Amino acid sequence: MSHKPILTAGGLVLVLAGLALIVPGRPFAQEIQETQIVKPKIFDETYQLINETDLNCSFYMHEEGKLLPDIRIIGAERMNEKHVFENDDVIYLDKGAADGLEIGQLFLSLGLRAKVGKIGTVMERHGRARIVRLDDKMATAKVEKGCGRIMIGDFLLPFEEEAGEIGKDLGYGGMDPNASKRGRVIYIENDFHIAATNQWALIDMGRQHCVQIGDQLNIFHQPRPDLPREAIASAIIIDVRGATATIKILGARDSVDIGNEVQINVTR
């Protein structure tokens, strides 16, 4: 009687495993080696704290008594169909070649929006517009990289490329309550009453308080006048005016509210 080798299921598994070890390439093993673990941003030493969106799509306080830009949007294609304009829409300006404008010139679109007490009016940045046609007293421009409500009556300023800021979020914690350079949140993005990480807000500190773009600060909440204040968020200054500044919230454990106290973090 002849004896034929019997290959059990367990033996077959062992044979296939052995082949996988000796076959060149071993694609599965190679995939494992090539896989890299990407750390979350919060664990990076540095990252982009102030980016292009912060610079071109945020807002600032147009303070009382300051001059407004002298170029305005006076019309647009399809203006009878809509009143808010966006990428690739064509708009008309009240200045032209006689005022020194040139084909290809790039502008930043700005719109006056919310009035804040006696301090001023919030000026929102809404993206860029490039001149594509010129007449003597009027210019035609096309919207590029729109990021807000561009409307007839809004203003234009010559666009200037600005550098962002790379750094590390210094976080938030207890600080000396008697230290100087303290202020309050006076306005929150989109006129909400609260804000969170990556949103913008305005504070009542500016050049006259010796703050500058890139300064980081802590935001505090005080539950009651008879209780200690609590650090709830970190932020960075992205725009500075005379008496006000725009901040971007970097990290928060609670929502930021109008009236919250802010204090500059001197460890920069």
Low-pLDDT runs: 1-43
Please report the total strand number as a whole number.
17
What is the CATH T-level topology of the largest domain? Thrombin, subunit H
CATH homology superfamily of the largest domain? FlgT, C-terminal domain
Elements, N to C (H/E): HHEHEEEEEEEEEEEEEEEE
General form: elongated
Main β-sheet: number of strands, strand sense, barrel status?
6 strands, antiparallel, barrel
Strand order of the largest sheet: 3-4-7-6-5-8
Q: Provide the number of structural domains.
A: 2
| Radius of gyration over C-alpha positions, nearest whole angstrom | 28 Å
Identify the CATH class of the largest domain.
Mainly Beta
Question: Given the structure, what is the number of helices?
Answer: 3
Secondary structure category: mainly beta
End-to-end gap: 89 Å
Q: Name the assembly state.
A: single chain
Q: How large a portion of the residues is in β-strands, by DSSP E? A: 35-45%
